[in-house]
Amino acid sequence: MGGESLIATILIGAVAGWLAGLIVKGFGYGLFGNIIIGIVGAFVASLVLPAIGVSFGSGIISAIIHSTIGAVILLFLVKLIKSG
Q1: Of 63, 71, 5, which Cα lies nearest the Cα of 35?
Q2: Are the CB atoms for 74 and 37 separated by under 8 Å?
Q3: Annotated domain spans of the chain
């Protein structure tokens, strides 16, 4: 992975994690936590969304949307596990 790709991944992960934290109330993990949540969320979304036939195209905005959806799914599951 090149330097530009790494920086883009970190920035997209940070934005997606931050947005997911706003959507799923009660979660605030700071900058590093948001980056990790966003990156893991992108992985989750890459497994879930194609299985149900959802595609957002390409580009940075679609990557943020994709990662945010995955991060929301991840945070929702974590919230379910913690409360149950």
Answers
A1: 71
A2: yes
A3: 3-83
Give DSSP secondary structure letters for 2-20. Answer: -HHHHHHHHHHHHHHHHHH
Tokens standing for 82? 């913690």
The residue among 21, 32, 16 whose CA lies nearest residue 66 is: 16
pLDDT digits (tens, 9 = 90+) for 11-47: 988 999 889 988 987 666 788 888 898 889 898 888 8
pTM over 0.90: no
Q: What is the DSSP string of 34-55?
A: HHHHHHHHHHHHHHHHHHHT--
Kindly give, in sequence order, each residue whose CB lies less than 8 Å from that of residue 71, ignoring residues fewer than 6 positions away: 16, 17, 19, 20, 37, 38, 40, 41, 42, 44, 45
pLDDT tens figures, 53-72? 888 888 889 989 999 999 99
